[in-house]
Amino acid sequence: MAKILQFGRRSASVQPTTTLGSFLEGFSIEVMPRTASKIESFKAILPAGTRVYIAHIDGTPFEEMHATAKRITEEGFPVMPHLPARSITDKAEFTNWVSAYADLGIDQALLLGGGNAQPCGEYDNSMQLLSSGVLDAHGFKRLHVAGHPEGNRDIDPDGSDRMVMDALRWKQAFRDRSDAEMAIATQFCFEAAPVIAWVDKLAAEGITLPVHIGVAGPAKLQTLIKFAMACGVGPSLNVLKKRAADLTKLMLPFTPEEVLRDLAAHKAANPDFGIEAVHFFPLGGITKTAEFTSAHGSVPAARTA
Q: Which pick of 4, 46, 245, 275 has the fewest CB atoms within 10 Å?
């Protein structure tokens, strides 16, 4: 733990009181239409008030996205659909999507470039979606944007973070000149140190958007490695590779206690540290992730962004 805390700015007057349970308060979870369809009742497995993101996988018809959003909204959960810029053909389609979600009472979304290598229409990035005026016109008040603590080579092929940081500065400025409630929802990571360094760099750059840190829920090690490689997870992937080298652990499920405890300890020692919430990617199943959060005493809590 001392190794992790060396990244911080601990004050002698601050006593680390954050437990894992309190760090998980107000967590969110991401689902896809096909995985959500396997859950009989979200009320039975998630705390009331849990924000549920709906991932837009390229090729999934919008009707399936909308039906999933409707079902989860009717169960009483706040829904945050993905809006991937490079999967939207034009402003008319974007307006139709946003309007359809607004008709369900949804007023929040995660804006991202998306997984397509090339745009299928006139949008290439989330900044264009923010600038379009469509979200504001339909009463969307909470707008989250994507973050990559270990970089994104699709955006910065040279391995730097120059373009990613420029984009986050633009989004910070957008938040500052608008009344939107914004936060950064990140890719999942498996190690605390790179996350801490990245969040501290954001603060040094004047980017004060709160961070909702992505964490993979419990899953088989092989499953996590497959998703991590497909999603471009950076150096923290070595945590999984080292575990995979131990054949006695290869078939055991991997759970995120270590990274979460390290981040919770750092937050306790540095209350102003920019992580505000945890966002779970249930790569091993929604129910398994829900059981993990329940076992560690998490409860929902109101968040400001």
A: 245
pTM for the model stands at 0.85
List pLDDT tens digits, range 119-158: 889 999 999 999 999 999 999 999 999 998 876 556 655 6
Domains of the chain and any CATH numbers? 2-295 (3.20.20.220)
The Cβ of residue 59 has, within 10 Å, a number of other Cβ atoms equal to: 6
In angstroms, rounded to a whole number, what is the distance separating the alpha carbons of residues 172 and 186?
15
Among all chains, which residue has been given the structure tokens 């979460």? 260
Q: State which amino acid sits at residue 57.
A: I
19: its two tokens: 């437990």
Strands 219-220 and 253-254: antiparallel
Residue 234 pLDDT > 70: no
Contact indicator for 138, 102 with CB cutoff of 8 Å: yes
